[in-house]
Automatic annotation (TrEMBL):
Stated family: Belongs to the radical SAM superfamily. KamA family.
Keyword presence, Electron transport: no
Residue numbers of N6-(pyridoxal phosphate)lysine PTMs: 327
GO MF annotation, one: isomerase activity
Protein name from the UniProt record: L-lysine 2,3-aminomutase
Cofactor(s) required for function per UniProt: [4Fe-4S] cluster; pyridoxal 5'-phosphate
């Protein structure tokens, strides 16, 4: 369950908020879609509720119940079905937790779950059942665990979404991480630059690019319509700061499971100064099975992209297997 305002290194006032739709009726009214056009609509999604920034909703096609952006965020009754092979912890986050909020899965890298807050609730989220309230305030324990492991040279800030933390909270956290000598790189994984680009202010840019650690910003866009001109202009500006900009997508049925869509996404990303990095097979989290794309189709899509695009625009098709030493490529 994503619980806003809880997590590491923060008080409730340490979370920032955007103008957001939280009621299904309000979102559907805004995009001009009638209830009867979505027969499996879940009007009361419960603990993992609707959350969609207005800035993101403005990019949805009006009166289109099959809009790929709407499909990513609209709750469906299918989420309540129990499907074999789908679980609440599909990538074994819990077994990788060294202290609350610190995950170590791969050599040299540590992931800090900074907060349970997100700017948007994506219905396929692999941490939609993560026990964020159990994080408490464990900053000192996290920093001590990282400093004690000399094999670690890169820290990933994740969540929730780390860019939901205020500038002051991020500056505090990054400043403390910068004091750990063996660290070389700081990676930020965030959906915020895509769904709420106004968050990327000048002070945040200075915090992420002005420190000792080499900065990498990994954004999350699944469809070319997510990359508005405002988003692209912001990302291009941030590229000039010396940050490496990468994108991770999730392959989603009814959203981006077409060669033309994925090719357009890669081209659009590059125009924004971002390199396609990973195309993830869906993590089998409970409630997401209706987004699944068959492996054979996924492989066919990548083959089609390779025939159509230069190699640097073809993302790596991967799946995360619990307790594997790295993301596993398909082909």
């Amino acid at each position: 369950m994503v619980t806003q305002g809880q997590g590491l290194c923060q008080k409730p006032q340490g979370i920032i908020r955007a103008a957001t739709f939280t009621r299904v009726a309000d979102l559907l009214n805004f995009v001009g879609v009638a209830y009867e056009h979505i027969p499996d609509l879940d009007e009361a999604p419960g603990t993992f509720g609707l959350k969609v920034p207005r800035a993101f909703a403005e990019r949805m096609r009006r009166a289109d119940p099959d809009d790929p952006l709407l499909r990513q965020v609209l709750p469906r009754r299918a989420e309540h079905q129990s499907i074999a092979g789908y679980s609440e912890d599909p990538v074994a986050d819990r077994s990788a937790e060294r202290v609350p909020g610190l995950l170590v899965k791969y050599a040299g890298r540590a992931l800090v779950v900074t907060t349970g807050a997100c700017a948007i609730h994506c219905r396929y989220c692999f941490r939609r059942h993560f026990q964020y309230p159990s994080l408490g305030t464990h900053l000192e324990a996290i920093l001590a665990a990282i400093a004690a492991d000399q094999s670690l040279n890169e820290v990933i800030l994740s969540g929730g979404d780390p860019l939901m933390l205020s500038d002051d909270r991020l500056a505090e956290l990054i400043g403390r991480l910068s004091q750990i000598r063996q660290l070389k790189r700081l990676r930020i994984h965030s959906r915020v630059p895509v769904v709420w680009p106004e968050r990327l202010n000048n002070r945040l840019a200075q915090i992420l690019s002005g420190g000792r650690l080499t900065g990498i910003l990994v954004i999350h866009a699944n469809h070319p319509h997510e990359l508005s001109e405002t988003v692209c202009a912001t990302l291009r500006d941030w590229r000039t700061l010396g940050l490496t900009l990468l994108n991770q997508s999730v392959l989603l049925k009814g959203v981006n499971d077409q060669i033309a869509t994925l090719a357009e996404l890669s081209e659009r990303l590059f125009a924004c100064g971002v390199l396609p990095y990973y195309l993830h097979a869906l993590d089998r989290v409970a409630g997401s099975a209706h987004f699944a794309v068959e492996d054979t189709q996924a492989q066919s899509l990548i083959a089609g992209l390779r025939a159509r695009l230069p190699g640097y625009l073809v993302p790596r098709l991967v799946r995360e297997h619990p307790r594997a030493p790295a993301k596993q490529p398909f082909i």
